[in-house]
Design goal:
about 375 residues, alpha+beta, Immunoglobulin-like, Aminopeptidase, 2 domains, 17 strands, about 25% helix, globular, binds zinc ion, protease, carboxypeptidase activity, M14-type cytosolic carboxypeptidase
Amino acid sequence: MRISANFDGGNIDVINVQAPNNIELAICPDEGGEFFQWFNFKLDGTIGMQYQLHIVNADKASYPQGWENYQAVASYDREHWFRLPTRYHDGRLSIEVELECDSIQIAYFAPYSYERHQDLLAQFQVHPMVSVEHLGLTLDERDLSLVKIGDADESKASVWITARQHPGETMAEWLVEGLISQLLDGDNPVSRALLAKANFYIVPNMNPDGGVRGHLRTNAAGVNLNREWQSPSLEKSPEVFHVVNKMQQTGVDLFYDVHGDEDLPYVFLAGCEGVPRFDDAMNTLQQTFENALLLASPDFQTQFGYDEDAPGQANLTVASNWVADRFGCLSYTLEMPFKDNDDLAEPIQAWSPERSILLGEASLVAMNAVLNKR
Ligand SMILES: [Zn+2]
């Protein structure tokens, strides 16, 4: 029996692996030590044997309430991800598994590896409407890549989509994969209508360093990128610095910043009611977008979510607020669950890559509803 996490996006510290019914593990904190919750490791053992794994520092994680009713994610083939019986008690997250193969991968959510990210860029760049642009380097000297879908017509609207500012929120890149794939489907009338009136600027992975390092929330310098948008710097947050520069060149007419929420078992949007520039026109657009998304995906709902910011009280260091105020456009943070959507629970997989992909497709319907024809 052995545990390993020495791979792309891996994260676990092995404390005690002597007894199969009492394997003690701990999650390694992100750089800087402030955040942790992401885990991702492989267990090799004996087929048919029962294993009990305990993450002993679960109560010190960034969002301990995220463990309530949470089930760990696992896969034998790294394609199909399912849930394992999991219990949070006495400050420990306990996971049970009976091995069906020699090895199982267990993670906080279905990983989206840096290699798969490279595959995504390569797979889509062969489409004639796609160009992949190098925006700059991260602190670990990885590429920060922009997928542009459209043409040279600058009179079109600019739709910006960013994912994985928080690298452990891998569902965000699964969503983007589904959204791009559908947008490039020449038979899809929603996609054709959208591309007639907008160019898309998509950053599928805002934080590749954090992803490879197995971080939950920060980049290589331990910085939370979603608090850097008012004053990004090449020293602390080059990822945001480069994206903001590019946004200033293209302008932004619609922004969709994609995330996962550790706690709430729902899909929800956080709007920009609290930014100084919020007005009746933006409010009407928000209603239109949300009504369209409600019809396009029963996984989306508007009952549960974050409290709305009071007028003028939004935190402008947050991406969606900064963009709304700078460009006066509709701007959202989209949150998907690590757990499940309790309105439409699915017991085997719970929230999954597949459902994230479908939500990405549905998001195009809502975008089409708010973008004016040329
Ligand atoms: Zn997030």
